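ok so i was messing around last nite and threw this chain in just to see what happens. nothing serious, just curious
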Amino acid sequence: MTDRVYPSSKPTANGGAAAAPAASPAAATTAGTTANPPSTKPQPRQPYRPKPQYHNRRHRRSSRNLCCCCCFWSFLILIALALLAAIAGAAVYILYRPHRPEFTLTSVRIAKFNLTTTADFSTSHLTTLFNLTLTSENPNNHLTFSYDPFNLVLSTTRDVQVANGSIPAFTSATKNSTFFRSVLSTSQDLDVESVKSLRSDLRKQSGVALKLQVDTEVKVSMGKLRSKKVGIRVTCEGIKGVVPKGKTPSVASVSNAKCNVDLRIKIWKWTF
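result:
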């Protein structure tokens, strides 16, 4: 008969108790589920908090600083340019002592001045012919004036145009006087208001008060330096004219005539 061998119940040699058999995974899961039941209460949702973008803030600050620096330096450059222009202008004025050109109306002769009206007073026609002498003087020692053609308009003090003409272009050297003789004429129909104003002036015993307006452009030369063209307007007032009788021209009084020269600066569509 065979002998059976039974395991000993004594502890092992190292004194530790015998290891208990490991529980199965199914049993562990069931036990965990039973010990911690699932919660049915909904968990609160955490609000979204974007992270601060420090890089964008730094970029904006740097852009603002760059813009401020550009504006500051641009302002300084403009001030410097204006200061240099003022210094250059003062130097030119001290060295050259520039003066405006001077104009004098020497004589005005009225060869024809006819205002006719039709029988039904519907149309009035004006026909005139003037001969005048104009003097241009350059009082500067170092400046030369180069003029474009002149446009002359003769009118009453109430702005009724009675004649127009022109003077060709010329150059006025330093300390030089130039005399011009020009013929001004017109042949035009006038409106009712212009006719009333002109007839009122013709009835005056002292004569018709006239004024001469001259427009042109001039370029100034200082040695090798040349400026751009600048518009000028010459206005001569104080002219007294009488309508001629017959074919004999009448001489207008210019003893009290004074001519003023004004600069005409054009900026885009406006002229000052």
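not much to say yet. The CA atoms of residues 165 and 184 lie 5 Å apart.
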